[in-house]
Amino acid sequence: MVSGTPRLAGRDLRRTFGTGEAQVHAIVGVDIDVNGGQLTAVTGPSGSGKTTLLNLLGGLDRPTSGRVLLDGDTVLSELSENAVLATRRQRIGYVFQTFGLVPVLSATENVEVPLRLNGVAASERAERVAAILERVGLARHAKQRPHELSGGQQQRVGVARALVAEPDILIADEPTGQLDSDTAATIMDLIVELTHERGLASVISTHDPLLMARADRIVHLLDGAVKA
Ligand SMILES: Nc1ncnc2c1ncn2[C@@H]1O[C@H](COP(=O)(O)OP(=O)(O)OP(=O)(O)O)[C@@H](O)[C@H]1O
């Protein structure tokens, strides 16, 4: 990768849903750069296209036109399904608003899932899961299931799961949307710290002005376009 090239970028991204009168132009020509070691916050009113944009950048959806670039040269949005899946497993961690934890699994077992998918051996899995749970402050809660944890603790499990396979890109759609404001601030601080510590190219969406102020860059969306 040429230095100065954004690790993740969108170029003239457009995403249209539906056809005819039901057509919705959710994203209408967005350019965005996300650099390693930086947290970019995507903000905007409800329906402005934040989730749609994050799904495009994270390879969870494909643009109607335009491109998603990795390292300036790999066109994520034009790779085969299998290649997208492999790239997601190796390079991208996801954090969800509703945590997305498996209720019958302990914190440890939830965090272990991506390593199992990547075929990491049991002893190495145990080591890596313990280390990341320690880093997010949950070492003492490793055996607990989601319903035995607070919302903030559940989201810490979510962050640990997103990062255990050592991705270099983090996508977090409203990661604090279900949390009270103090807990939201601590989760946001954790995401900021990990972004800087691990050199992640991180993109989060948020409605909260206090949280967006902690980001390195802010992108305001309005009606699917970047507002100057
Ligand atoms: N699968 C879909 N089919 C049809 N329309 C969709 C689909 N996904 C999103 N949309 C529409 O695209 C627009 C942008 O939606 P999106 O969820 O990206 O906005 P958002 O900014 O994330 O909103 P919120 O803050 O409420 O989560 C909305 O008008 C939405 O109804």
Automatic annotation (TrEMBL):
InterPro entries: AAA+_ATPase, ABC_transporter-like_ATP-bd, ABC_transporter-like_CS, ABC_transpr_LolD-like, MacB-like_ATP-bd, P-loop_NTPase. PROSITE patterns: ABC_TRANSPORTER_1 (PS00211), ABC_TRANSPORTER_2 (PS50893). Keywords: ATP-binding, Nucleotide-binding, Transport. Signal peptide: none annotated. Gene3D superfamilies: P-loop containing nucleotide triphosphate hydrolases. Pfam families: ABC_tran. Residues 8-228 form the ABC transporter domain. GO terms for cellular component: membrane protein complex; plasma membrane. One of its GO terms (molecular function) is ATP hydrolysis activity. It comes from the Bacteria. PANTHER family: ABC TRANSPORTER RELATED (PTHR24220:SF685), IMPORT ATP-BINDING PROTEIN (PTHR24220). This is ABC transporter.
